[in-house]
Amino acid sequence: MAGMRRATQAEGGHTALPGLLLLASVGMLVWLWLDRPPPTPDTTLEVGPAAAPADPEPEDRTARGLPPMPPAPTDRASTPAPPPSDRPVPSALLARCRAEPGRYKALIQSARRYFDLDEEVWRGRKALLGDLTRHHEEGERFLATPDALAWLIGQARSFATSLRERKWQREIEAKEFKADKGVHHLELDGSRLCWSEPPAFFRGRARDWQRPLPRAEPAPLLVALHDGTALDEGPAERMAYFRRHYQTGAARAFASKAYVLMPSAPAGRYLDDKGEPKHAHLQSPLSLLWSQAHVDFDRMVLEGGHQAFAVATSVAVFFAGIVFRGGWSIDERHEAEVRNFASRPVYVIDDEALAKELRDAGHPDVVVGTASERFAWIERRFRQPPKRFHWTAARPSQQLPYWINLSTADWRAEARCLEVEILDTEDAPNTIEVKAQGVDAIDLFLNDALVDLDRPVRLVVNGHVEHDARLPGAPAALAPLDRDLDVLFNRHPLQIRTSRYYGWLFPAHLTGIPVRPGTPLTCGVASPAVASDAEEPAPPVAEFLPTPAAPPAVDPGEPELGAPQESPSPLDWRWVLAGTLAVLALLLWVRRRSAR
Questions:
Q1: Rounded-to-integer distance, Cα 102 and Cα 100, Å
Q2: Cβ neighbours for 539, distance < 8 A, ≥ 6 positions apart
Q3: Ordered DSSP codes for 69-97
Q4: Does residue 150 register a pLDDT over 80?
Q5: Does residue 121 or residue 21 have the better pLDDT?
Q6: pLDDT tens profile 369-381
Q7: How many Cα atoms within 13 Å fall on the side-chain side of residue 69?
Q8: Dist. CA 200–CA 203, nearest whole Å
Q9: Residue 473: how many CB atoms within 10 A of its CB?
Q10: Could you read off the pLDDT of 203-248 as tens digits, one per residue?
Q11: Which residues contact 255 (CB under 8 A, 6 or more apart)?
Q12: 155 with 94: CB under 8 angstroms?
């Protein structure tokens, strides 16, 4: 009798087990379905602004003695906003790329594989060269058309491995990564940053960090340097500060279509005692974000107080405009440095005295307005390389005057400055004129937005012709400049492909150009001599953008192995578990049927 009871219980348990396993697998599949991430489109998205509450700030500019500002753009879903006022007219090739994206599918695929750094072996160079050559033969020269090249990179660019993908980082991320209501906070390798993403690129939930970003138009980026108010207590306080200043009022509508980054520095100190930008508090968070996010490198704007002034005088090349919060004044020792960012428009928040100081120091484009109006101003900014500028190098961090690098400077000299102008006249055809003082050698980075690389480029430094391919018997170093894919993306030490700073698009370089004595320049207020340990500063961009180690390269002549393919998305563990439970339930049911 006892044996019969045991057999009956065993049969009942055996009968119930397949049903339980099947029920568990169905529950797991339902969980997956309800918890699925939103679809990722492959086409260009147009992001409309979120509804913004009424702006509490006063708008009566006439009563406050301020000049009128243009009206803010209306809802893009109903009335298309005008393009940024600084944006140049698109080239014919860019217009064709936007109108016929399918025509460039193969080129995008090969470029996507070229930029993919997650492969153990890089094999995309030859395919990309072949496709670029084919389009070049058809009259579509991407390396000679900077805006079309930027479009191609936007369609094919690689993003850094997601913060949520690496298994060995999970424990670190659990303590250092936080996301709440569209605002994220990260502490990694000594860097602390808060940022928000536009809805088209939102990946705030942990499960979404494994999906690729949509191939939408890249979004602008506002880099905001805080003033140190109540930001040292913890991530919650920093996120509350960020949300209060960049997620309410007019800022909310702006954040619906742009990235906003706030690197966190203790007590708001982004500079060291020598006035140099701190790597851990500024450069590292900035490069971390743009390697992860679909940033428009030509629409990055810097905002802050007196510390933003020091950053703008050092690396104005990265930004399309500067926003200064008022309440401070320019030290007379740094007045000469204002012209370092004179090619970048400036917006001053409610401080006419500071705006006057900037104008008196030589800045030609300064606007004063309210805090809420600055977002409409930011949306109209677009970076262009200047063809004429003055530069004063008072500190080693100021060695990158836009597209020129001070490769060897006399940091013990009384002053160091440059005056640069690009001419194209009968007497000076396709000519770059450089006047320099306190500099021994320079490097030039060129593209077709600056000079016509199809024609001989003439370089005159302090009245001496240093490069002119038209000269008879010119040595090989003075041959006509060629646009080179490897110079553009992989030349040491810049290696733009591995740093993922795709805003540095210069396919032709002139390096090691000597600076012979010439007519002395007026550098403004004399900059103090720097200690001897600064005689050999780091290379351009590489100091501001630390580049990771590149994956093993292959011989450029090695044949390609198969066509470029998209990287498969990772398989969720719940699908695997649900499938395993379903298979076990099926096997137990079959066994039960066979036993009968």
A1: 5
A2: 405, 407, 493, 494
A3: -PPPP--TTTSPPPPPTTPPPPPHHHHHH
A4: yes
A5: 21
A6: 999 999 999 999 9
A7: 26
A8: 9
A9: 5
A10: 655 445 556 677 678 999 999 998 876 576 788 888 888 998 999 8
A11: 50, 182, 196, 198, 246, 247
A12: no
Copy the structure tokens of residue 140. 């579509």
Band the pLDDT of 368: cuts 50, 70, 90. Answer: very high
Contact 183, 194 (CB under 8 A): yes
Q: How far apart are the first and last CA of the chain?
A: 22
**Among the listed residues 450, 514, 440, the one whose alpha carbon sits nearest the alpha carbon of residue 481:** 450
Which pLDDT band, with edges at 50, 70 and 90, does 587 fall under?
Answer: confident
For residue 385, give the nearest of 458, 310, 448 by alpha carbon.
448
Rounded distance between C-alpha atoms, residue 282 and residue 156, angstroms: 27
Q: How far apart are CA 338 and CA 525, in angstroms?
A: 11
- The beta strands (E) that lie in 265-360 are given as 295-304, 321-325, 346-349
pLDDT band, very low/low/confident/very high, at 437 (cuts 50, 70, 90): very high
**Separation of alpha carbons 315 and 219, rounded Å:** 21
Radius of gyration of the chain (CA): 28
Phi, psi of 300 (to 5 degrees): -95, 130
> How many angstroms separate the CA atoms of 520 and 420, rounded?
14
CA angle 341, 345, 346 (to 5 degrees): 90
What does pTM read for this prediction? 0.76
Q: Which of 177, 202, 203, 197 is nearest to 188 (CA)?
A: 177
What is the dihedral angle through the alpha carbons of 347, 405, 218, 209, rounded to the nearest 10 degrees?
-110
Three-state DSSP at 431 gives: strand
Residues 302, 315: Cα–Cα separation, whole Å = 11
**89's tokens:** 């007219």
CA 262, CA 235: separation in Å to the nearest integer?
Answer: 12
Which one-letter amino acid corresponds to residue 463?
Answer: G
The listed range with the strongest mean pLDDT (273-277, 398-402, 559-563) is 398-402
How far apart CA 195 and CA 472 sit, in angstroms, is 56
Angle 469-150-262 (CA atoms, 0-180°, nearest 5)?
Answer: 120
Amino acid found at 28: M
Mean confidence (pLDDT) of the chain: 77
Taking a C-beta distance cutoff of 8 angstroms, is the pair 216, 294 a contact?
yes
pLDDT of residue 172: 42
CA torsion sign, 13 to 16 to 18 to 20? negative
User: pLDDT tens digits, residue range 454-473?
Assistant: 988 999 999 988 877 555 55
pLDDT category at 530 given cuts 50, 70, 90 is: low
